[in-house]
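lol ok so funny story. i was supposed to be doing the assay writeup but got distracted and ended up predicting the structure for this chain instead. priorities right. anyway since i did it might as well share w the group, maybe its usefull for someone
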Amino acid sequence: MKKQFASLLLTVAAASSLVACNNAPASTAVSSAASSAASSIASSAATSIASSAAGTQTEITFWSTIGQNNRPVFEKIVSDFEAAYPQYKINNVYQSGNYNQLKDMVTSGFAANNYPDLVQCYPDHVAEYINYGKAVDLTSYMNDPQIGLTAEDKADYIEEFMREGQEYAVTGTYSVPFSKSTELMFYNPVLLGLNLSSVDPTINEGNPLNRAYLENLTWEELFEKLCPAIVTYNNSLEASKKILKEDQAYHAVFAYDSDDNLFITLAEQYGYPYTSVNTTTGKGSADFNNDQMKALTKVFNEAAKKGYIISKGSAGNNYTNEYFTKSNTLFSVGSTGGVKYQFEAKNPFATQVARIPHARGKDPKVISQGPGLVVLSHNSTEREKGSWLFYKFLTNKKNSLAWALDTGYMPVRKSGYTDNEYKEKYYVDDTVMAEASQDALMSRAGAYTEKIINETYTSPAFIGSAACRNAAGAIMIKAMTPTSTAADIDKSFTDNYTAAVKEIK
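and the output, tada:
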């Protein structure tokens, strides 16, 4: 494992566009503000860092969408931090909604001073926070001789994860890694050994389904052969013996949880335009309103009409693992940060793991994701300092490992992958492969993530890229809705493209 993870190099492109301020060139305005802020932080931090105000307690508000299953380990870290740093109190707020909605809550709260000190983020969110003048450059804190990172710490954080927070239009470190993840395809073990040759003798060359076949699915194979065969086979079974249940409002052979990820990943897999950035100006471009993506999303619309696929947005806005664990889908694509949710003790089965389907004739591609953290300015050095200290504590060797082991997120430190406890947890043998338990599933997922780490990709971040992601999700939801027509999908492209372009600065 050590050898494999030594080559963990995720290329992260995170470019931000430049914005105008008071009729001055954006690069000048933002860079000047950043420079001034950095100077102010450095000078005030030098004094404040040496000692904190005696007898006072500074509150640090943290906003996140951390799921229920992952909260106990996070709350333990919060409690330990408050014990180690009694001068700080963490106001830990779990917000409902997705990451984009969390970003909208933050930006809408700027005017009324109703926003956190520390919040989960994606690079495109941070590009907007920088534009508002709220994102804090953490460089001075990272390099501070008393509370900064040691040389050993700096070498231990995975460079590509840390670099992601430094690749904006403004020089500095404006976000830091926390919960890195990708996507996996989870499937019901009832599929292993299933012989569909009587329905379609070309599937897996007439052999029963096996891991090798399921680990190398293409979208074409899935929709043209496997899904039709499974539906036909399932319809031939007695109600009590059906492998695909239909007792929920939504059911299909395949489920993909994130609509926006699906759209963006399809564009990447097939080589169709999504977004791009002018490397000279830093300005982004929405490129997804094209004939190729329109045709591709209509293929998915036809698949949805036939009961082959659902997504969160097209299935009552419920996480699709809820259908998968009840056998209302046989496949479920979801985040490695949410592996626990692909198992349900009330209906236990040995959930299996594979890479997501890809484009025929193309290399597999899967998104590199997972939120980082950004510190937002309240014009208080003490709050910024406390936020930095909390982040540093949250991702020290002990806590970074604990978070990864408990949640399934990838460690943000190199030492996490070589730790004996991590290697033991993600050691998988035949017994573990067949075990129907949450712990066994975590092991299978952790081990499989190693296999696909070099298949990951990222999209460029710029002011307006979050709007492009929202547009991609809205289009995909429309396409995945069985009642949508081709005209509905075309209109969704036009409307959402128009809205996204307005947000690009």
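The mean pLDDT is 89. The longest strand covers residues 58-64.
back to the writeup now i swear
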